[in-house]
Design a protein that fits this description.
Radius of gyration: 15 Å
Mean pLDDT: 92
Number of strands: 10
Order of helices and strands: EHEHEEEEEHEHEHEH
Distance between the termini: 18 Å
Structural class: alpha/beta
Strand order of the largest sheet: 3-5-2-1-8-9-10
Helix content: 25-40%
Shape: globular
Length: about 190
Amino acid sequence: MATARPFQVVVIGTSLGGLTALPVILRALPHDFRSPVVIVQHRVNFNDDNGLVSALQRGCLLEVREVEDKDTLAAGRVYLAPADYHLLIDDGHLTLSTEARVMHARPSIDVLFESAAETYGQRVIAVVLTGASRDGVVGAQKVKERGGAVIVQDPAGAECKVMPAAVIASMKVDRVLPLVQIPQYLLLCAVASA
């Protein structure tokens, strides 16, 4: 892998297949990973007693938590968008919104990525994983426009190719990587930012 750029936040978007893909990334990150990781996983509004948080926490050395409005971003934490709320990053804080669905989704990947791009510019890395919609395309473009990096799961290995393929077709991404190589790239970037 070529020169990695430093970053302050990792944002991840996924849909169909994300429940299999996310643990592969999260379990590979060390306990001292310096950047917060903020995730939108398309999900329906149901009371699962934090079952998704528990599933993602299993084997993950970072603290996984569902976002509450006005949470402060902190290193060593993984933040998950709640069902039926958009998640935005604003000046080191996370805010929730019930504004209209985007691409039929709330939470929306585009909303998260666009807000991260506005706040962090070139110091954000957006990761697009498996999924069955085009949500994330506009947000990934905004990340690139602001100088951030866009990493996409190789569609060939994705449970659902639609989302990663749509992002790749829409722009020049920084990396297309097999799922197991994505955490390695994030760690390389973390070292570069030290």
